[in-house]
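Protein fold
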Amino acid sequence: MIALLLSLLAMGPQAAPDQRAAAVEGTLISAVDVSGFDIDRLSPGLRRDIRALVGTQLKQERLDELAARIEGERPRHVSATRAVLDAGGSARVIFIVGLRGETRADENVNARYLVERVDLQDFPEDAVSKALRDDLQTLVGKPLDSAEADRLQERLEHEVPRYTVTRRIERGTEPGRIQVVYEARRLEEPLWLRYQPLRTNAVFHSDQGWGSYLDLGIGSREIRFTPILAFDDADDLVEEYGGGGVRFETRRLGTRRLGASLEWSWFDSDWRDRTVAAIAADPSLPALYDTRATVTPLIRFAFTPELSVSAGVGITELEPIAPLKGSTAANAAIAGLDYRRQWGDKGRSQQVDAQMQLRAGTRTLDSDLVYDRYLFQAAYGYDHRRHHATLTGMAGHISGEAPLFERFTLGDTRTLRGWDKYAIDPAGGSRMYYASVEYGYSGLAVFLDVGSVWDRPADRRARVSTGLELSAGPVFATIGFPLNTDTVTAVFTMGIRVSETRLRW
């Protein structure tokens, strides 16, 4: 079977010696082809699902599933997949289908017939050079040379970089003759802005218990609607919260450079005993609240496909715990800078993801709390077949009187694994740094985390942890050990984490 798949790949339209780089996971798919088989012979549902790949992110698991469905509908055939980068940096997916038992490309039945004619369809006028047109005509009058036809197809794609080129064989006007048709289709313009990454999870921390956050993106490549639900989530903030919300996003407002989002959420807040005691002991810390309601409109602009900026406001109303009355406004101006790049070839891929954000509570927005909050996050990931390495870093600073949901924490299922954030700083801190290095092979990884959260210089203390993480798709289990402490107690975390990016912070 392995030899058969390799031979089918050799028969595909990318079998030329100067093969293009393979596309990596997450690359936007701009075109899908089925080679060696008439797609109209498949069921309508399968045809629809194959064509629906265009505009989505490349996931090999999904391609394998569709290839298996092709073989299920056509048991006499075998199917393989390939994904290559086109001239615009998007992915072109090819399903290569052949009869079981075919092992050599020169057994292709088309090689038995003479080429009667070579046609170009839907190509831009005068886009193909005279030299290439002349070379295309050298196929005429001879049996079809698939390798030469592949090389000519790649030359066509090079001369019309904003188009995808497919090749098909048609019957000639006389028996024993065929026509070779190259067809151009304009590539859909890739969008430069990305949606806010989804972070659905259901996690358990041996010191903090269970919690979950669910966000389900529904929509198209340009518009997405995301309902949000949270149940006892204590994984990212000082508070444990539950509630819901909704987010609307568009990645195209007249141009691919401009996008916008609007999010509304309402959460009921609960507080751990350690947090309550810490705030009661220090009047300078922010006050507790019972509920938190927020509206966040944002505008985003992309300078390049990798670099974008955002600006907007976060309007938040905090209701006090009874019997206190009178809500508190924590309204902040928001500005952000986002950089993301992914590249790779021959089984290797690299990814850089970096963000910088400023949130400024200001009287201009009628905020009762005035503060500045700076946060910088960056991560680098490297994959080579089953080997995975990730470097992550964060740093943050708050000045002024920020609410509790803005304060920094470390020691959860993602950061300082092996520590409990309520033991480090139960009310969070106004300053923070964190760094992590992780190496994994297949589903097993080893990590080293270091970080600190503090308010005053005297409180600053670096904490270090190490451990192992076992993962299978979205399911993970981690055991972490604090290193620089008198009492070494293992912390166990587990759960499901569905993320649109492999890099974490």
Notes: Residues 1-19, 102-107 have pLDDT under 50 and may be disordered. The longest helix spans residues 60-73.
